[in-house]
Structures are given as C-alpha cells and as structure tokens.
Amino acid sequence: MAFCQPAKISINASRILNQLPANMYGACIEDVNHEVYGGIYDQRIFGESFEEPGAQPIHGQFSAKQSPQVSRMWDAVNNDGAGDFLLDSLEAYNGRQSQVIVHHGGEGSIGVANSGLNRWGIALQKGYTYSGTVFFKGTGIAHGVIVELQSADGTRTYATHLIRHITGEWASYPFALTPTQTDHRARFVISINSKGKLYADQVTLMCKREQFKGLPLRAGIVRAMQQEGLNFLRYGGTMVNASGYRWKKMLGPRAERPPYTGHWNPYSTNGFGIVDFLQFCEAAGFEAAFAINIEETPQDVADMVEYLKGDSLTPWGRKRSADGHPAPYKVKYIEIGNEEVIFHGDVAAEYDHYVERFNLLQQAMHAKDTSIKFICSAWWRPESPNMERVFKAINGKADYWDLHTDADDPHAGSKVDFSLSQMQALFTSWDASTRLKCTIFEENGDHHDLARALGHASTQNAVRRHGDFLLTACAANALQPLGQNDNGWDQGQVFFTPAQVWGMPPYYAQQMASANHLPLNIGVTTTGGIDARGGIDARGGIDASAAISNDGKLLAVYIVNPSDKPCAAVIDVQGFDHRAARATIIQMAGKLTDVNTPAQPKRLRPKTAQALFRHNKINYTLPPASYTIIRFNR
To answer: Cys-Cys link to 265, which of 33, 113, 540, 595 (CB 3.0-4.6 A)?
Structure first.
C-alpha cells in the first residue's frame, strides 16, 4: 500500500496558547422553507397560506392534479368533475390570496390536497393524533367540509373529520385526525361533496405526541442536534435579507402572521420566526444568536430588545409576558444583517449604507440593553480599503465581525487559519487596543460527505489555534431535508425525511470534537504527511491541534489526515506524562465521498478503541481520509 510521507506531530503540553471558545460547536439555520418546514417546525402542511400562484403548464399542459387556479403547493382533487377552483386575491384571511373550491351540485366531491414539503409526503403513525386548524368561510355548504388523511393516491382514507356550520365570515375551525394505518407518504385533503362555495386559508397540521417539550418542534430532530454536541445556534443567512423579514411580523397567533416573499423561495412562512427560534434554543439548551434585516427601523429594534429582555412592567415586556414568556429571554448576541455588500462587489456606497444602518440600529438597541453583543455582517474583503473604513466606523460598537468560510476541501483549515491571522493583524494595525473580534457564523460548502467532515474538523483545528479571537464557529447548514434542498446548497449535518432523522459525516465530526472538548489550546507543530505524488503539496498534509484541561489531567489531540493514503506519524508528547495515562482513540475514516443514507444511516460514524502508549514518542499510522482524536486521561 502506498503511504504519504511520514509525519511528525510535536505537542508541548506546557505551552498554553489561548483559552478556547466555550461555544465553538455551533451550527446555522438559514433557510426557512427547507430547514424549518418538515424539519424543526412541526408543521406538516407546506403552503398553508395558499400564497403561491397556481401551477404553470409543462409543455403547454397541466398535470391531472394541478391547476392554474390551485395554489402551487396543493393538488386538485376533483375525480368526478364536480366543480371548479379559484384563487381569490380580494378576501383572503391573511396574505394575498385564499383558495376557493366551488361545487356545482350533483354527485361527487371536489377538494385540494397537500403532501408536505415539495410533495414528499406527510408521515403518519398509526394511533397518533394529528390536530390542527383551518380558516373557512363560504356559502351554501349544507353538508359541511371534510378534512382527511389519505394515502398519496387517495385510494385509502386513514382518518376523517367533518366540519359543520360554515358561515359567510372567516372563522377558525379545529380538527383532530387519528390515522388507522402508518404511512410515511400520506396527504391531507380538504373537500366538499355538495353544492356550495368554500374559501380556505391558513391550514396547520401538527402532532403533539411527536413534539419537543410541548413546543411545535419536531422532537427527533431536536434530540439529534443535542446528541451532535451543539452548544451554539445561529439563526440567519440570506433569508433575513428579504424585505418582508421583520421581527414584528413574527409575533402573535401563527394564522395572523403575514407570509412574505422570501429570498430562496417565492413565499415564506412567519410561522417560525425569531422568538420561536429563541424558545427552541432555550428548551434545547443552545446559546442563541440571530440576525435582523438592516432596514428595520431604530424604533422597531428598540421595541424588539424591550420585548425580549425588558421588565414585564415595560410595554413590550408586558406583551412578551402576555405571549406566554414572563421571564426575559437570555439574548446575548444580535447580528445586524447578513453577508451585506456581497452581491455587487466591492462598492463603497453600499458599505457606507451598511455602516449607517448598523450604527442607527446598534445605538437604538444598545440604549435599551448595554449587555447585548453586536455582530457586523459586512462582507469581508481583506484587500479592500473599504474594510478599514468600516472598521473605524463600527470599532467600539461591534463586538464581532462575521467571517464566512468554506469547508468542502479536507484542507480547509489552512485557509481559515490564514484568514483569521490576516483579519486579526489588520484589526490591530488599525487600532492596537481594539476589542473587536471574529465569529464564524457560516462555514459553508456544497457537500455533506467525509471530505466535508474533514474540512470541518480542520476548520475546528484552525479555530483552536485562534481561540481567544473567536466567539464561535457555526457549520452551515444545521439541517437538510433529503432531496428537497433546491436552493443550491447541499451541506447539511442533520438530514431528515418525513419519518427519519440521521447524521451525515460532518455531524459525527462535530460530535467527536464536542464530546472531547478541553478548554486550553496548547502548542502543536506538524510536519510531513504530504502525498508523495504531489497531489496536495501546495495545501499541506496532516493537520493537528491539541488541548488540555485546566487541571492538566486530560489531554486531547485532534488529527486530520486529508489524503487518500495512510500516513505513518510520530506523535511526540512533551510536558504531559501520558505513560501513566489511559488513552482513548476516537476515529472516523473511509472514502472522501462517503455519505450516510436512509438505508444505512450509520454507515460512516466514529469508532472507539482503548490503547496504552509507553513512550513519549508514539508511532501511529493514520488511516486514509480520517479524523482521529487521541484522548489521554491520567
């Protein structure tokens, strides 16, 4: 078997370099429609507000289920030709349009069906109760409205609820459905079987038995995130740049929160917003940070801080208490914007506009609560003179500057290392006494394979080397629905379908590091480990970092072998007598393209072994494409 060049990893346990971030195991939720619908938010209906326009013809024709007068995420159920459909833009309960179902009389029924996110199916468990509400009004609905859970093709009905007494005014109608069978690709149907005209809007369908701590959260996904070892979660991304993304529109009953035109998707929900995210983090035990749109008004963001953190005697604190959260939220971090000035290049006027908005909003929020830490989201271009101008305008007001990185490449850490060193050097050159630091709120990519896991692990090594300069490092994206992420990103850690939740290789890399976190970064130098063919010479070879406990009794070494060849390494440990220590080896290795699948959800995951090393210099062969943590306990 061909080997890489031999590597040497030299560790000086007595040389403490910096304190590591307590919250360095983070992730980012940045896509409302795909990470929230069918994911963290326990709402089984996608397109509950009927906002989307009707279907567009393919090759000049519509499918049998779709109609230009049926909202795009719904399908027509009109097997008997009993009536027609309309999309009404004049009398919607909330938003821009509602769905109208018209029955002309005679035999048969007519209705609409929803099959969840992008029609991937609604997961039902036999005997569980799925409850919800729907807003109706209508005329002549003598026999009532039928809501049902059915098989995908409509040939089997699992549960039925009849809603009577529909009036000419909008009203909310509750229902409960308990299916007689388990089906992971079911659909929800609204129909009428007698002459009349029905308006429908704002449909919800949830299952309390499958929720986390009584919140409308999918428990299996929350538990997977906890088991991953996350301790920090950022809610942001390009979704916040949409003009309709405003915090006040995310309050109150979900049926009355206005839907809006999103960035990634033409219509987005406010059913899960900033306050819901904070409740989620509070229940799950994650430190929270969130981003706001830079065009919020100073008064609105001042009200937001009062709502989140104010005493219940203040006007907005009183509203928070009335909304069911008497105690203030423990909000520490607020990001103003997201990736600002990214789209049009290095434009001075756009940076100036961002600085103006940052200072206005920061001042308004700081006046309400001086403990909040603020994050600058201006896109980092180290070669641009605009960076110094932005720095000088926000220095002393911003606590962190958000740097976004990439981790598809297993060697990603070397680039992150360089970027962090460069940013820190520029900050101190502009102001030697500055307290402005960095946070990585998005570690991005296009993959979720072992290569991305190694890129994530090497990024964490870089973060350890710069630990006291960083708040956290958040991998994007935290969540991904299998086969449904159509916005160009394919990089999730926790994957899910309507009925299944599992971790990808980056998930396990995060879990390994979090479970073996120690607080003090110690000196490490690494040489060798380069592919003899020269394929990775320019990017370097073995990447390693190490940390030690405060009492000096625990030491962990974090090693990435990014090559597709094994590497014979000598690990030289000084200043820590590991000969009397028990060593645990936690390791994940495979092919760089390996992923986990629904059929094999744990195909690639860490393995643990015990070892006893008797000398300071340890000879150890690192497997190809591997992440290895050696933990000594004396």
So the answer is: 33
